[in-house]
Automatic annotation (TrEMBL), chains A, B, C, D:
NCBIfam families: L_rham_iso_rhiz (TIGR02629). This is Sugar isomerase. GO terms for molecular function: isomerase activity; metal ion binding. The keyword Manganese applies. The keyword Manganese applies. Keywords: Isomerase, Manganese, Metal-binding.
Length: 429, 429, 429, 429
């Protein structure tokens, strides 16, 4: 039986106070959607089935190179983190898996498995880390990891990824996500072609160790931590990698990893069309890889991404990209942000489901640009909160997860157990 | 025998006044290069062999959607344009071919061939135009051409490209460049996947008509004239196209067609490494597709592109991308800008040839980032003007093309023949 | 009595078919807002009072430097344009004024006044044009206008602005908007300080002629048509200008005239705080000055701008910026786009009015970042379409302006009178 | 007498091996400049007088939020840092002052003064730090410092700045530089106007404590560490601040703190023209605030900035902005990078001095855009290394500082004394 961290009676009490209004709003929305030929319950069902993974590192307070300002009750280790993730899952019913980062989350795999199964949580993709040096590591990644000029360094990075696969096998993960920071800070520091050859060779060794029912996701990013060039800098290079590796290799799209002004939803479409869209790291950004909360800066863009996903689903029944949040919570309680972001990702999905694809297609074929875009706008403007809330309620979650979370006093409680962490002046500027 | 538009005696007189200083500077530079183990004459020889094509449309004054301010003596037709190109070739000895744009340059192909051969000019790639409507055209390209939802429109665009190939066969061109403005201005206006399928199907029809010894270059561009999405938006999509079409298909890189901050030299490297770099449209830009003179805004970037080209040459003896200028001259005499830009492209090539690739490789392998970047900087900082000037002089060109051009009074002379063109308020805002 | 171009019976018939549903939706929304302590009728009243000006040039099909693809029934002159604007005003009841562009709209001022008053339309700001050369103009603006190095050119540009003021006085305008394209295409082409001195001197001459009850709006833009530097490049320079000129001088913000990633709503706040926010040119953009329909690309950003305006209103009762649409309609019927954009601007205003400013302030003061942003999100997510529709209905407009416009067949009717315009290959690339 | 850390005999030996070639190159360059009417010795004199400050924190290895990879022999404290700075000064003779960061460099002011005077080093501007929390600090800067909503936090930040002024008085500094990270990560998190009022009030308190012969420099930055809004986001806001504060307040320009594509040299011109340009933080960037070595990515931009400075000097004899390097050295030996960057800043200055300002002005006034830009290009293309080297040699520095530094084995020596620092996985993602 699933353990509950938040006392269900708190949820029930809060829900009870909100349920009547929700019923009115759900019915009213249902009637409006009915006029548009949409059955609200069918949308709710799809929303309820949708889950987005929570990254273990997301429940700790994030920071920048300038400073980190920890909150109260910071998780001490992966087991604390799993408990925080369980709270998110319990209240939102939208985050059924956790994604681990090795070596940060390294622990006895069987213990990891047990800790998660207490809360009926599964494990999403494994994340390797060769962008920083772990204690005791023989070779430094200062000048690169999988693409380093030094063979011993590359081999160490390969071995680390193989270890991630091994841990993942035990805990029931089915995918490995590889993001590296390799690149260069000066024109001429690396030879682009040689560096990419090193990378491809190393990835082939990792790919060779991938179980048959696994996928490997490679993730591109324009810049940071490398500031002149990055080896997997964009979806073009990412696509080349997935093609070179084979059919278990897919591209992962982080919404904050692109050049300014780039049309991300179009990249989503291209990768889906050519069978190489593996999944997402959801977050939002205004400037660079800001890792802000999903949908907090440009909610229409998030909707347009989901519009492509629903379109791709309609073309390919076997289309099932992986969804994960990947955010840095610097000024909010991470649990609060993750709960709301999970809902915002669901929201974009629900809105995309409202698009009348036949009407859209007719407008597109008739070059009626205005009617086409109005079809999208109408879906986006629909306030689907009642659908999300009802889906949560149906599954035992909270109509208003934030209100329940605050009422339950979870953060204050863990702060009594978990020791205060000193604010960090990283000293890196 | 090659006809000369500028009286050779004017060139000789100007050269005579500059030759002694040039000799001193060339020798002094030769001595400094000799210390670095570089033979100046070998560099000069390579520079002399380098040629960049001039686009026929480049010799007319350009403009923006706000206005066009023509200069004096604007060319009236392709035959005037060929004469202007001949002046550039004569003075710089760096632009041995002209690139035509159909239907703008449509004329009896045999007459075109004769007009060019008078000046010993060849023809570079043919450029089709389906981004604007020609008079009398049945279908409009308002909603797209090769990727339009309407089949008749797509077929018309295919036919136009086939016609370009036919003209090109007669005049001795060996390539077709396809740039289209197709895209959309509103989210939802087009279905990205459907639109791209239309595009690929259309391009396959064109590819099928390509002679065996031809290449087709497809050109990507982030935006403009479409402002929400563009069908061939970046090198990733461009690469997909070249792979889908076949071995005669290559990607063309215009330096101004990328997102802000993008590392263009890295794209050059990737395309070269995967055998799909077809060539360049050289220009410079600060904001978008500004089409400013090559090297006028960021000369170091132009050098870094050539650094990749010289690196690619060293890996593949058969590597021979096409080079063309593609600029919009809004406030200068186009002939002057094109002469200087041709020299600036040669300059970047010459500087890239100065890089000690063995020393660079050693620094890269040793992770000596500073030594590696210094090797590039040293090459870039070298003032190679004496090499360029000597190469021009050796071939009958001008030591100082601008001075000779102004002294010869060419613009004033053609302004007597060619009627004044009224300034245009395009009325398009 | 106001003349009506669209037969009111068509509006009535369409409204009749929609009114019952609107009533249900308005009441349902009213109930939900009531729970949040908001009176829906008070919001509706403010929306009904809100008007955005339509630019005369906006009713013609726009284009790019590559091409213009005119639609059917293009307006032939300012009198056709006024009729098109009257249709927009009639159906939306949201656009009570028209903004003229001289010399494009030059005509007998009294005739202009009569033409507009037929439809009860007023005139918004006058717009001068020194970014293109008018026929017969003595000096060319190729190298600048108000900031040109040549004094005769500057004087001509000043005279043109004085003429705009004179016309405006007759027709009842109360403001002059000055946007110029002056800048440079090459480093060194102009001396920044000298050019700005010329500009300030010229503007002072114009300012001196401004009637006491007028305002002058200067408009900044990052780039285009100048591609290396622009004399009024950003709000910093624009603010300097307004300070130098005096208390009748204000800054105008066009949403598409900023650098990538810039936080525009913050600029709005700064200018409002320092008393120099004059007004807006509304449109949307993804890349540069794309001039797409307001709210079509990033509706949340438009909302955030209005959030600042409502905040500024609450600080300063005398705050009354000018609102104008400024869009280029390249692939839609301009009347349709302008009707929808007027509604989308109203929508953002209505949503901003829903923000609970006391709750927002409390969250801000308590550093509860999540509660603060949720307050904005909740307002933005509210589908206020019933409020907009009811406001239109109350004033004699259409519940669904687009449906009525299409049903009325206006475009087909004027296409019978107004001759077809040939598609333009601008020939400017 | 000035102490020397690097044994002068090592410098002399290396110089001796290079002096003959330098003599040839200096004379040859002198002859070429002489033809252009330029006296090489006058340029050398100005270069020799030019100094750029070294930031104390620059001599430690930098990092990103992902990781920091320390080098060998990292300085342990400010006294080690001063020694590293002394090496840079000794070899380059171009960095006569050090800039301190409090509390990082906090120590007995008299000891600081003595430590620096041993090497004849002075102190440049004091830098306060309210972007991270120091140990034992009562109020956290998590939600802002000088602009925080909490008054006690603002007061603490003010007090810290007053302390910086006090320390600076003792050690002979004459300026305070204030950069803060205050801003917000979510729309609505702060009220822009209120936040700016708090900031201005706090800065007024600091300004009031500024000695009469001091300057205060405020520094703008577009984003990071705040990712939705930043209180001092651009030069427009920075100018407002300097005007509000008074005549001792000036704007500081960091080259990496602007929006993509922004014309920085124009901002330099505007601030200089309006008397508010205080100085620079030199570095280079490709994406954001990358803090790469000055001139390493876009050397022409650095030149264009100095072109404005030389122009401003010619207008205002009293113009004397402060120059400081501000870079993050993640993959190089910081001392090596700083030595080369100091030279690259001098290089840009030397090249800007070569511009024939009369010829430039004539071309500008005649609208000869090409001649104007050629005048700048000619200056930029001139390889002025012999001038820099000779200026170093004349003052007792090294012709080739990098070669001497490596030959002297300084890093290895200090690595014996200074303990190894563990690589940091910041754990902040």
């Amino acid at each position: 039986m699933t353990e509950h961290i938040i006392d269900p009676s708190i949820i029930e009490a809060d829900n009870a106070a909100r349920e009547a209004d929700l019923r009115v709003d759900y019915d009213s929305l249902g009637e409006r959607l009915d006029r548009r030929g949409i059955a609200i319950d069918a949308i709710k069902k799809k929303v309820a089935q949708f889950s987005v993974a929570v990254p273990s590192w997301g429940v700790g307070t994030g920071g920048t190179r300038f400073a980190r300002f920890p909150g109260k009750g910071e998780p001490r280790d992966i087991f604390d983190k799993i408990e925080d993730c369980a709270v998110i899952a319990q209240l939102t019913q939208a985050t059924k898996t956790v994604s681990l980062h090795i070596p940060w989350d390294k622990a006895d795999p069987n213990r990891l498995k047990q800790a998660a199964s207490r809360f009926n949580l599964g494990f999403d993709a494994m994340n390797s880390n060769t962008f920083s040096d772990a204690k005791g590591q023989l070779q430094s990644y200062k000048f690169g990891s999988l693409s380093a000029s030094d063979a011993a360094t590359r081999n160490q990075a390969i071995e680390h990824n193989l270890e991630c696969i091994e841990i993942g096998k035990t805990i029931g993960s089915k995918a490995l996500t590889v993001w590296i920071g390799d690149g260069s800070n000066f024109p001429g520091q690396v030879n682009f072609a040689t560096q990419f050859e090193h990378y491809l060779d190393a990835m082939k060794s990792i790919y060779a160790a991938l179980p048959d029912d696994w996928r490997v996701y490679t993730e591109h990013k324009m810049y940071e931590p490398a500031f002149y060039s990055t080896v997997v800098q964009d979806w073009g290079t990412n696509y080349l990698i997935a093609k070179e590796l084979g059919e278990k290799a897919y591209c992962l799209v982080d919404l904050g990893h692109h050049a300014p002004n780039v049309n991300i939803e179009m990249i989503v479409s291209r990768l889906a069309q050519f069978g190489k869209l593996g999944g997402f790291h959801f977050n939002d950004s205004k400037y660079g890889d800001d890792d802000l909360d999903a949908g907090s800066i440009d909610p229409f863009r998030l909707f347009l991404v989901f519009n492509e996903l629903v379109d791709a689903e309609s073309r390919d029944a076997d289309f099932h990209p992986a969804h994960m949040l990947d955010q840095s919570h610097n000024v909010t309680d991470p649990i609060e942000s993750l709960m709301l972001s999970a809902a915002d990702v669901q929201r974009a999905y629900a809105q995309a489901l409202l698009v009348d694809r036949e009407a859209l297609k007719a407008a597109q074929e008739g070059n009626d640009a205005l009617a086409a875009t109005l079809e999208l706008r109408r879906a986006f403007r629909t306030d689907v909160e009642p659908i999300l809330a009802q889906a949560r309620l149906d599954q035992g979650g909270a109509i208003d997860p934030l209100a329940v979370y605050r009422a339950a006093g979870y953060r204050a409680k863990v702060a009594e157990i978990r020791p205060e962490v000193a604010a960090g002046s990283s000293g890196i500027v």
